[in-house]
Design goal:
Blueprint lengths: L1 H16 L7 H12 L7 E5 L5 H7 L6 E6 L2 H13 L6 E5 L13 E6 L6 H8 L3 E9 L18 H17 L4 E6 L5 E6 L3
Parallel strand pairs: 1-2, 1-4, 2-3, 4-5
Antiparallel strand pairs: 5-7, 6-7
């Protein structure tokens, strides 16, 4: 456990030095709490957006039965993720896939208890639509960065440009979740904003 803690701290330092966005502590604590709750029966997790493996390793550390598949399209981050997974001795429990998540074709038989979306924010709706069919009954889709540093809800005040466009896409995603006839979504004011979406029929 001590070694894992040291590795996690080293990853936080690396992310800071190399300007790599990793999940905020409050958010990952909330997700880990959900995974650890025995009533939620979380054993299989699909993560879209590995970065350096920080959240995948912490999610897998919740319980010895947890298996994580994590997808990353950036080669440098993928390599760093592999290195960190190995350093934490989790190669058998974390499968790192080097691919663009929108181009990846998973086997239709694969189903997950939890799907975590933390990749290109402008593609959130596409990720949700593509991967919702890989959710087990009773499972949830959790999405991070829905406040996006406080900009979400303030897009009308932003000058035209990449930031405004990105914030508008996150706002559209929130609207998409609020009006989705298939899912009940809870929005949590934790970290940079999380949503937890569950099938209405589960």
């Amino acid at each position: 456990m001590k070694e894992l803690k040291e590795n996690i701290l080293a990853m936080e330092e690396y992310a800071k030095e190399n300007n790599i966005p990793i999940i905020e502590k409050d958010s990952i604590v909330q997700i880990m709490k959900y995974i650890k709750d025995k009533d939620n029966h979380v054993e299989s997790i699909l993560e879209i957006g590995s970065a350096i493996g920080y959240s995948a390793i912490l999610m897998a550390s919740c319980n010895a039965n947890v298996q994580v598949t994590t997808i990353e399209r950036d080669e440098a981050r993928y390599m760093e993720c592999l290195k960190n997974v190995k350093k934490c001795g989790m190669e058998k429990r974390i499968n790192v896939v080097y691919q663009d998540a929108l181009e990846l074709n998973l086997s239709e038989e694969l189903k997950y208890d939890l799907i975590f979306i933390d990749a290109a924010k402008g593609q959130y709706i596409k990720f949700f639509e593509k991967y919702k069919n890989f959710l087990k009954p009773g499972g949830v889709i959790i999405t991070d960065n829905l406040k996006f540093h406080g900009y979400v809800g303030e897009s009308s005040k932003l000058d035209k440009g990449n930031l405004k466009s990105l914030v508008e896409k996150i706002e559209s995603y929130i609207e998409f979740l609020q009006n989705n006839p298939e899912f009940d979504t809870q929005f949590l004011e934790v970290g940079d904003g999380l949503s937890v979406s569950r099938w209405k029929n589960s």
